[in-house]
Amino acid sequence: MKMTQRFTQDDAKGGRMLKPSRLFLCLPLLLTAGAYALPMTYTLNGVTFADTGTASGTFTYDALTRQFSNVNIVTTGASRFGATYNSVSGGFVPDSGGVLVVTVGSGSQQGLPGLSLLFSPVLTAAAGTSTLTGQEADCADAACTAPSGIMRNISAGTVNAAAPPSPKTWFLSGVKFADLATATGNFVFDASTNTFSNVNITTTSATRTGASYNTMSGGLMADGTGVLYVTSGALNQTGMPGLSMMFQTPLTAAGGSSPIVGLEGDCADTGCTTPSGTQRFLTAGMVTTVAGLTITKTHSGNFVQGQTNAQYTITVGNTAGAPPTIGLVTMTEKPPTGMTVTSMSGTGWTISQKQITR
């Protein structure tokens, strides 16, 4: 039996989304907080001393508080022994222009190694590179306010902070409540600042009326482990719908997928910190940044032996709730047993046909 194989495209290349996500009961762990600038992690690159010794490692700088932390710098020996630095000296006030790091963070530093790092341009809250100068020596006093012993200057090198990863769009996939209602939509999560934006989530009606969520609750802090969405940014959210989602695998900048639990109910207070009214729990579903494709085959009527020019349609689409598919999509299809392909076509597809009989 011969048949014509017809291909149709269901916006797989264009990024069509076919379908789309623990509320109040567990939200005490979400505390109030404000927005903040991300502390930057700087890496030493190509740092050498005049005596050919080297320095390598990293540190974190918070431009808002002008504080250094997570110091992990190692120098190698030449005219003096190398050392490992993991503390900031209490004898100097560090800022965006420089810092003095030491090998111990408490007690007298007299006679112990100290390493000054001076940055040009000064460090900021943004990614970038600064030329590094400075000096390694021993501390002349308990607070390490002056150098002593063998001293060597930094002759070359930089410090660099890379830009944080871009925020990712997370899509609700296969999300259902105990009353069989569903939740669909998406949101953007920035793992570098623990902030949510571009919320677009809709629930359907069953034991309670569905709602559209486009705002994050101001009464609770959201992060990569959970979030509470509300329908309005009004100061008083009492009686308005609220939807909490807890991510069983915390959301990260790398993306991926995470099963979710949560609850939809009404806000019992102005900040929506507890639920009231009819409540329903999430029983299935996940959030994901990973694209998924589906393939379905359909035809009209029954095929009969000896028939020619019969047609069936192959539809390629995105998994319900998955993010848009971007880039080249390749689909390979073999005809059912006993059939021979005579032609194929599909708008937006490049067709490569081989005569295959099964």
Write the layout of secondary structure elements.
Elements: E1 2-9, E2 40-49, E3 54-62, E4 67-75, E5 84-85, E6 87-88, E7 98-102, E8 113-120, E9 128-139, E10 147-161, E11 168-177, E12 182-190, E13 195-203, E14 212-213, E15 215-216, E16 226-230, E17 241-247, E18 257-267, E19 275-288, E20 293-298, E21 310-318, E22 340-341
Parallel strand pairs: 1-21, 1-22
Antiparallel strand pairs: 2-3, 2-10, 3-4, 4-5, 6-7, 7-8, 8-9, 9-10, 11-12, 11-19, 12-13, 13-14, 15-16, 16-17, 17-18, 18-19, 20-21
Question: Explain this structure to me?
Answer:
It is a single chain. The protein is mainly beta. It is about 0% helix and about 45% strand. It has no helices and 22 strands. It has strands spanning about 1-10, 40-50, 55-60, 65-75, 85, 85-90, 100, 115-120, 130-140, 145-160, 170-175, 180-190, 195-205, 210-215, 215, 225-230, 240-245, 255-265, 275-290, 295-300, 310-320, 340. The strands form 3 sheets. Strands 5-4-3-2-10-9-8-7-6 form a 9-stranded antiparallel β-sheet, with no helix packed on it. The radius of gyration is 30 Å and the shape is elongated.
The overall average pLDDT, rounded, is 83
The end-to-end span amounts to: 10 Å
Question: What fraction, in percent, of the residue positions are helical?
Answer: under 10%
Write down how many β-strands occur, each being a DSSP E stretch of 2 or more residues. 22
Secondary-structure element pattern, one letter each? EEEEEEEEEEEEEEEEEEEEEE
Radius of gyration: 30 Å
Give the DSSP E fraction (strand runs of 2 or more residues). over 45%
Enumerate the spans where pLDDT stays under 50 for 5 or more consecutive residues: 1-36
Strands of the widest sheet, in order across it, are: 5-4-3-2-10-9-8-7-6
Quick one: biggest sheet? 9 strands, antiparallel
- Computed structural class: mainly beta
| Tertiary shape | elongated
- Total helical elements: 0
